[in-house]
Amino acid sequence: MKSQNIALKSILIALLVIAVISVAGLAISAPKSLADMKPTVWRTQSCVPFGHYVCQVIVHFAKEVEERTGGKLKIEVYPSGGLGHPIPKTISAVRDGLMNMGEILGAFTHGEFPLSDVMELPGLVPGDMELRKEICKALDPYYAKVLSEQYNQIHLGGWQNDARVVALHDKKVNSIEGLKGLKIRASGPNEVALCKAIGAAPVSIATPEVYSAMARGTVDACFGADSWLASGKFWEVSKHVYSMEFDGHQMNWSVNKQDFEALPPDVQKIVREAAAHAIEWVWPEVFSGQQEGRKQMIEHGVKYADINSQDWAELVELGKPMVEEWGKKGGPVAQEMLDTTRKIVADWEKRKK
C-alpha cells in the first residue's frame, strides 16, 4: 500500500511539473506585442448583402484593423451569411470558435441570448436616432458582462438599425387598427407578439423569401426597415408603407474570448479602437440609409403614412405587457437594462418639453 501511495504521488508530481512547463512555454511563446505577432486571420459573416451599411460597417472595421496591424490581423467578411452558420446560432458559433466574430442581431439571436433585443421591445424607445445612440452606449456594459461571463465572448460594441415599418402589398394602412386581420411577416418574438396584440396574423418566413411571399400574396404585409426594403427593391411588390417608427433591430459585435485574449495587448487595443471607430461611422449611415431608402421607395411610387401621436400612445400600451414579460424572464440584469433605458427615455422626454 505504501509503495502504491509513493507511486501515485510520483505521478501527480510529474503531471504538475508537465503542467508548469506547458504554462511557462505558452507564456514564452505568446506574442507580447504586434512586432512579435504571427499573421492571423479571423472570419465572420454578415446577415445582409455587401452593399448594406450593416455589412459595410464590419468591412470598415476590418480595413482599419488590417491597416493598423500591417496585415498581421486580417478579418475576412462573408456577406449574406456566406460562412453558412445560421444567423440565430451566431452566439453558439462564436462561443464554440466556429467563427471568430459575430453580428448579434437581436430579433434573430434572442433564442440563444435573450437580452439581445431589449431595444426592439414595442413602444419602449421612441424613434429618435440620438436617443437610441445614447441608450446603446449605456447598455454596452451589461452586454459586455453577460457575454464574458456566460458566453465565452468579448463585446466590442453595438448600435441600432433604422426603425421598423410595415410594407403592404396593396392595402393602404394609416393606423394600427388598419393592420388588424392582416397576415404579416414578422421577424423575432417581439414582432410576433405585437402582431397578435393588434389582431394580425404573424407569419414566419426566411428573410431571402420575403420578397417572393409579398409578390405571390402569401402575406399581406411584412415588417422591415426603409433601408432594407429599398435594397431589396420592395417597391416592386409593395404599394404602401405604414411607418411605425418603433424598435429597429439591435446589433452587437462579439469576438471569441480565446481568440481575443491570444492577441498581444497592443493589438487588442487596436481591435477595440477600430470597433469604436466603425460604430461611430455607422450611426450617420443608419440615419442616411433610412432617409435614402424611404426616398427610393417614394420615387418608385410607394405611398407612406407615418404613425401619429395617438397611435404611438396605443403602441406604448400594447407593448407594456411584452416589456414586463421580457424583464421577468431576463432576471435582475434585464430589469437593470430596462430601468436604465426608461430613465434615459424619461430624461429625453423632459428635454424635449
Quick overview of this protein structure:
This protein has helices at residues 2-29, 53-68, 90-95, 106-109, 129-151, 189-198, 210-216, 226-231, 257-261, 265-299, 309-352, and strands spanning 40-45, 73-78, 101-105, 153-160, 164-168, 183-185, 201-203, 221-225, 240-246, 250-256, 303-306. The model is unreliable at 19-28 (pLDDT under 50). The protein is an alpha/beta fold.
Shape call: globular
Supply the CATH architecture of the domain at 164-248 and 290-321. 3-Layer(aba) Sandwich
| N-to-C series of helices and strands | HEHEHEHHEEEHEHEHEEHHEH
> Biggest sheet: strands, sense, closure?
6 strands, mixed
The number of helical segments is 11
Strand order of the largest sheet: 7-6-8-5-9-11
- What is the gyration radius calculated from CA atoms? 24 Å
Q: Portion of residues in helices?
A: 40-55%
Euclidean distance between termini CA atoms:
84 Å
Approximately what portion of the residues adopt beta-strand conformation? 15-25%
